[in-house]
Amino acid sequence: MRRAGELIFLDVAFNGRWVKSSGLRGCAAWAVLRFPLTFAWQAMGHGSFACALIEVFRLWLRREGIGGIELFSSNSRFIEAFRIAAILEAIPVTEFLHGISVDLCGKYYDIIDGFAHDHGAELTYVNMLPGLPQPAAVERKLLRENGVQVFFRNERSWAPRGDKLIDLLIVGSGILDGDYIESDFFRADLAAIDECRAPGLSVMHCPHPLECERTMPRLPKNTAVGTVAEHINSARVVVGHFSTVIFTTRILGHNVLVFPGAWARLPDSQAALFPAPIQSSVSWR
Amino acid sequence: MFDGEEPTATDFAVRPSRPKVGAAAPQAKHRLLIFNSGRIDNVALLAEAVRGKDALCGGRAS
Q1: Which of A278, A203, A12, A266 is nearest to B40 (CA)?
Q2: B32, β-bridge pairs
Q3: If you measure CA to CA, which chain B residue comes closest to A59?
Q4: Cα–Cα 20 to 30 A to A275, which of A86, A89, A107, B17?
Q5: Residue A218 contacts residue A181 (beta carbons within 8 Å)
Q6: pTM for this model (two decimals)
């Protein structure tokens, strides 16, 4: 029996060598098995796995006596099904943001906002860094104290500036709508490495965590590779496309360049961190 | 479904519990924390973050 007001932890990280599973997938499977008739009825009625899953999540939330959802991860199908189930149950949802959003996510947050309003569910967001631009629907509901944004940043601390400085640190990106390795973004990374190494500048590539394994074997021979946390404070200049690191380093006062191909993808609120008169001067070329 | 033990940075796990069939719904409201242990530095900070947020929200339900 749980004590009153307990915190229940649900890990969405995949584990298992042969079968990719996570706490959230396990919860979904459990909810479907626990309420098979509801699941089957909803699936037949709506013809949608997602609708049926949301309905069994609602039952699970009621049965477990859940009075609040705290999201430290978001934007996966299972998590969003949980968020929607909570909103339908008028359960408050807080999201501790872990980065920036693309325009597409901004539109989604608009929809969620209206949906929560209709169902009387309270939404709160906690920014990852004060001033990190967020979609309008999120900005309106950022947690503030005395008018100042409250933030929660659960990243590995950045190491202090080292003795040996890196002339250019390239922050690898992840892209939602394609394959990063086949993208113009990665081609620009490779060109920048060659261009800077030719006159003898020191360059380091920091692959996106989700692309690390695929990126490393495709980099030019002898390219230095490292992690952002370990090396970013030792970089004279940071360059990248679309990565939260680009914006956090900019806010924290580093010298940041943005590849030209990225500007078209940046939501206005994020591009605004680089005022228009100087956008061309902070572009790569 | 899961025990509510607060995980620590070095030792955390989400363990399944087995609610009794037909058991009454708990009266107290619990909070569900959804996180990705592969994308954060310190799991133990999550509960602190929630408590800090609660304090700032003046003891609101969420």
Answers
A1: A12
A2: A8, A69
A3: B25
A4: A107
A5: yes
A6: 0.79
Q: Do B56 and A143 touch (CB under 8 A)?
A: yes
Cα torsion A15, A17, A21, A26: sign: negative
Instruction: Please give the mean pLDDT across all residues of chain A.
Output: 85
Contacts with B62 from chain A: Cβ below 8 Å? 68, 92-94, 122, 124
pLDDT per position as a tens digit, A176-228: 678 889 988 899 999 999 999 999 999 999 998 878 888 999 999 999 999 99
A143 contacts chain B (CB < 8 A): yes
CA distance B54 to chain A (A): 11
Which helix (H) or strand (E) segment holds residue A34: the answer is: helix A23-34
Instruction: Give φ, ψ of A46 to 5 degrees.
Output: -100, -15
Q: Where are the beta strands (DSSP E) in chain A?
A: 7-11, 66-71, 93-96, 123-126, 144-145, 148-149, 166-171, 203-206, 224-225, 235-240, 256-258
Provide ipTM, 2 decimals: 0.81
Closest C-alpha to A22, from A82, A63, A69? A82
Cβ contact, residue pair A67, B39, below 8 Å = no
Supply the Cα-derived Rg of chain B in whole angstroms: 14
Indicate the domain borders of chain A. 23-149, 166-279
Q: Which residue type is seen at A46?
A: H
